[in-house]
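Collaboration report, partner site 2.

Our partner group contributed sequences for two proteins of shared interest, and the home lab folded both. The records are reproduced in the order in which they were received, starting with the first partner submission.
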Amino acid sequence: MILTNFLYKNASISSHTILSKKMSAGDRDWVLRDLQARGANSINVYLLNEGDYGGKAVCPYAGGRWFGPELDMAELARWESIIECCIAMGLAPIFWTAADDSKVIASAWENRKQDVANILMYLAGRFDKYALAWCLGLELNEWSNRQDVDFFGSILAASVSHPVGVHQTTGRWDYASLPWCYFVMLQYGFGAKSKKYPKGHTADLGTISSMTQRAIRELGKPVVACEYSRFGESSQASAAGRQAMASGAVGACNGW
């Protein structure tokens, strides 16, 4: 079973951005030590992010010039040292190769396909040796289409030796039916909104069970319970993650 959490404190801190220069060393250390203390065996990590989580960019290009001609080799070496620390702590990475809220990435997927393919193949070649799995991108249907997801997913899957999955918006998993896609990172939403929690807190257990079982039934592929709580450190998130696994999910990525 995959056991981890990527969202903390009302989604204000995420393991996704541990490679960002904008994430403080204190926050990074806190996330890693929290996961280790809870007995996690994995960690979700962005390799490409422009705007998600308040712009905590994860950019491998020299000077921050997205899809430019030069890679920042010193920055990539810094990433590698952080990833090796994760491995030493027993946290096998699930690498994500695109974030939502990242207009430069969405634009490149549409208009600079060769440049995107090049960086996917480079990242695959450099980091696959550390990977538990790969996820092509976050909420893919929100900013891309099935044709481009198929194109880039096929390239990534052919470039790595570990499983590749997809993540979509709440209750969506149709892109996971593509032939190269091995699993789905399932999003459940964050439950009812309230005055105290205007964006929700944690999906209810009935939603967790029914959505997990339906996705398994319709896809016939592994389902990882990915996103169901803005407070992955909470007891509610733990209950939701355990419910997902009891319903057939092969792991919980947002508390368990």
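Second partner submission, folded after the first:
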Amino acid sequence: MRFFWGRVCVVAAALTVASATAAAAAPRPGDVKATRTFIAIGERYFAQSIARQAAIRHKTVAFVDSVASSCSDSLTGLAMQTGSQTALKDQAVLATEAQIDYVVTFMRALPLHAAAASLRSLQWSKRGLTRAVGSFARSALILSALRPTNLCADIRASAATGFETLPAATRKFVKGLTAIPDAGSSASWDGLLTRMRGYETASMRRADTRFRSLDKRSAKALGKTYGDQYTRLGNVLLGPGAAG
């Protein structure tokens, strides 16, 4: 069952990095300004995320604790692959709802909304880069504005039908996920910055180094909490050891 839990798509996990895009030898002032602003926003976001790591851990642990106390072992049929095809499919949808709820809880604890809102106004002479940053920002704004569902109530409602029917709240939630735009292949802070190569001044290249250092520190500070509690959530719902 580790395969299932690890492979279910989670909308907020945009982890790929784009290839570098060559820029003109003499970058336009507007491109330089936009890149400088992007770096400053990113530095502030990562620094604030690191500072909030204790609060972020508290919120994610509290979310998994609430699921454990209200609906633990409720999707064990999925782990055991028992039941009708409809029941297995509906439990898979509910497992996805649980994963998205977890991601939303984690992201709402980050200073993501303010950072994304600041990115939306940035523009470069290359429209593709402007669109990529805009899509990244829009996706982040939508995700950071989501609210966790009443997961355990939804699971209990479906369980009452033998998982043959999904509750209306779950169907509405899943349908709403399609409104989140695809941020594309450069949907990460580092991936977007890679596309800005050539727009940086000497001082900005030093800031670039700080940016990437903070990015790595943030990932190290928050990554273990995210991964540990994500796996714990899977084991709470699917049964001990089912999610790795």
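Feedback sent to the partner group on the second submission included the following. Confidence is low (pLDDT under 50) at residues 1-24. Residues 202-238 form the longest helix (37 residues).
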